[in-house]
Amino acid sequence: MTTIRQRRVGKATEAAEDQPSEEPNVKPDGKIPPDPPGGKLWNILSITVGGIVAISLGLLTSVYVATLHENDLWFSNIKEVEREISFRTECGLYYSYYKQMIQAASIQQGLHGLVYDNKTESVRTINILERMNVYQEVFLSILYRILPIQQYLEPVYFYIYTLFGLQAVYVIALYVTSWLLSGTWLSGLLAACWYITNRVDTTRVEFTIPLRENWALPFFAVQIAAITYLLRTHLQPAQERLTLVAVFMATFLFSLTWQFNQFMMLIQALALFILDCLDMLPTAKVTWLYIIQISGLLLVCVLQFFNSMILGSLLISFNVSVLIARIIQKNLKKGGLLSRLGKLILHILLVLCLTLLINKFIKKILNLESDEHIFKFLKAKFGFGATRDFDANLYLCEEAFGLLPLNTFSRLSSTLLFYVYGFVLFLLTVAAVIVAFRNLSGSNQVQLKEENEEYTVTLKPDVAYSLVHTVLFGCLALSTMRMKYLWTSHMCVFASFGLCSSEVWKLLLKCLHVHTSQRTQVIKYSVPIITLLYISFKFWPGIMDELSELREFYDPDTVELMNWIKSNTPNTAVFAGSMQLLAGVKLCTGRTLTNHPHYEDKNLRERTKQIYQIYAKRSPSEVYGILRSFGTDYVILEDSICYERRHSRGCRLRDLLDVANGHIMDGLGENEPDLKPSLYPRFCEEIKKNLPSYTMHFTRVFQNKTFHVYKLAKHK
Q: Where do the TM regions start and end (predicted)?
């Protein structure tokens, strides 16, 4: 087991006024009056200073997480095998393809090895570029080969520095989004500071570097920034076209780098759909965003050799259904309140039915079952019946796929982020309800100018999108802890925007009947500055202590195992074991695997369940037959799984296997009435007794405190 042990040693000045978030005043003839010379100069100065601050904060964040990674592992001092072992589970699998491309005789041979791969899954040849999102590893390996940096920078450092560099892009994108929403770069500064001080809940890049989300989320943040700018009013045609290109590029890169892209963009499409139905976004721009999502995903589908899981995604079915439903219901946004509500309900039902029909049709044509485990998991998670499905229970029992822990909110509250977020969310939700009701009622009655400004300014299209975006991704994070990083980063943006927004403070002060423009301006700048000072004084010492704490990577048992495999087994040997460990075996030794952690394939899921019978109550001959059917030469048993105590009874891997096999579970506790005792003891325990029924099939060739390796006999 990997542990981290203690290493053994051999304030910003703000401009008084920034670029305003409101669009310039528009004359009755539709022309925008020019800014006075002094105002234009001040805007240029503000944008320049704000841009410098954004880039500086991005680079500082990149250096910060890189330093934490180095200090935590002493990465520069440990051996190559230890560096590779530090890329745990699926991280090691993804990095192995980068290493494979680097070590290939040529780029062409490296690509051929990925397209016709027979080492990731034994007795099968698979296309890695089709199955997995590893184009970033391919691009990075080619870049490393063609750049004259081999003498100065090791491949592993080129890889991790690229990921840490993307953190700079991430923070800059969050900064710019908050700036665009509020009109002041002070808001961006606050968003970046909150992102850094809440690092535990906003990113995990420093210890899961190759994880797909660490590649994808920076591009997702860039896409949100571009959408925020696109939804502004009075954009020139050239500006709009360039912004659409930026949205498309960011969407494409986000989709290319993460297998869960379709589910994240489906939530985004739902946000657009809700706002379009409530007449809070321009329909033409929403249509373009739907088309961009579809085209970006289809381009990725082509690059992934027409990956059927993409074609069968709910996102494509939903977006196509919305566009079709619009054609069918042309008068959706006309009529009074009751008429609009009736049409809206019918529209929602039509879109839902079309989505299900189109998706069912595509999956039937393509015989697609790759994502069925996700829907089984969701069905069981939200209480639509218990399941004995092994794959669904494997997800249900993982903490990362459980509900968001309550201590998350206490950490977010310690930086004032959650309090501010809740305050802004409440105000804007009330405003959104009022604006939505007014839009649906189609009221054209003359209202007080003050009230009109109050509601209209508060819910501009970009603010409305940000509100629904944060609500939907907040629901996702609350239901699935692993997805909190999509929410908490945007929480920083949303809270900082609200604290620096003239519209939000104006709305609050008018509700309290104490509004003046001077008071709004004073509060708009003083409250964020006080918040920044509080964060700085409270968390700066802790950050300095964190940066000075030196630790060291320590996992001697795994290092010993990997060195033994490299020295004592042939290069063609096939290894079976847990998904997490085998990813490291592939990376460190290059041996062939029976299974691996990239779980988005039905055949692999069935194969993994079969391999995991080594931890179930099965006879030695049955286990031997299963392993040999996958060409296994060696099997690795882990005590941490066989005698697992991390999970409670019912969620241990051996319990999931027992229930799936119809056997009662070990230990005190209830069992379902139809479960029966097994005729055989648990394989991983009994094999250690060296009984004849086991030794005729398995010979122990290696063991330490954590691992036991057995060689399979080759019977005729």
A: 41-66, 156-174, 217-235, 242-258, 288-306, 312-329, 341-362, 416-437, 487-509, 521-540
Query: Going by C-beta distance under 8 Å and a sequence separation of 6 or more, which residues neighbour residue 713?
Result: 624, 696, 697, 698, 699
Predicted confidence at residue 447, as pLDDT, reads 44
The three-point CA angle 625-121-388 to 5° equals 65
CA distance 23 to 42: 16
The SS3 call for residue 590 is coil
What is the model's pLDDT at position 490? 97
**277-281, 400-404, 490-494, 639-643: segment of lowest average pLDDT:** 400-404
pLDDT on residue 386? 63
| 3-state class percentages of the chain: helix first, strand second, coil last, to nearest 5 | 65, 5, 30
Separation CA 481–CA 464 (nearest Å): 25
**Per-domain boundaries in the chain:** 87-152, 162-444+453-545, 556-712
Distance, CA of 138 to CA of 152 (rounded, Å):
21
Given CATH 3.30.310, say whether it is the number of domain 556-712: no
Distance CA 231, CA 462 (A): 5
Residue 157 in 3-state DSSP?
helix
Of 644-648, 672-676, 682-686, where does the model show the most confidence? 682-686
* Angle in degrees, 0-180, between the axes of helices 517-548 and 185-197, rounded to the nearest 10: 30
Are 297 and 313 in contact, with CB atoms under 8 Å apart? yes
DSSP 8-state symbol, 663:
B
What DSSP string describes 575-586? EES-HHHHHHHH
Please state the rounded mean pLDDT for residues 367-385: 73
Q: Which residues contact 282 (CB under 8 A, 6 or more apart)?
A: 231, 461
Pairing mode of beta strands 707-712, 698-703: antiparallel
DSSP string of 178-190, one letter each residue: HHHHHS-HHHHHH
CA torsion through residues 641, 376, 214, 111, sign: positive
Contacts of 472 (CB under 8 A, 6+ apart): 267, 270, 271
Contact 192, 57 (CB under 8 A): yes
Evaluate whether 162 touches 140 at the Cβ level (below 8 Å).
yes
Q: Measured between alpha carbons, how far is 466 from 159 in angstroms, rounded to an integer?
A: 33
What is the arithmetic mean of pLDDT over 575-601? 94
DSSP assignments along 85-135, one per residue: HTS-HHHHHHHHHHHHHHHSSSHHHHHHHHHTB-SSSTT--B-HHHHS--H
Query: How far is the CA of 707 from the CAs of 563, 637, 697, in angstroms?
Result: 13, 6, 19
Through-space distance between the first and last CA atoms of the chain, rounded to whole angstroms = 37
Inter-CA distances, 291 with 248, 283, 316, 664, Å: 9, 12, 10, 52
d(CA 75, CA 552): 8
- At 389, the amino acid letter reads D
Of 175, 124, 90, which Cα lies nearest the Cα of 497? 175
Q: CB neighbours of 286 closer than 8 A, spacing ≥ 6?
A: 272, 275, 276
Contact 479, 507 (CB under 8 A): no
Q: Give the span between the Cα atoms of 470 and 240, in whole angstroms.
A: 24
Residue closest to 486 by CA, chosen among 220, 236, 690, 241: 220
Q: Is 423 helix (H, G, I), strand (E, B) or coil?
A: helix
396 has pLDDT over 90? no
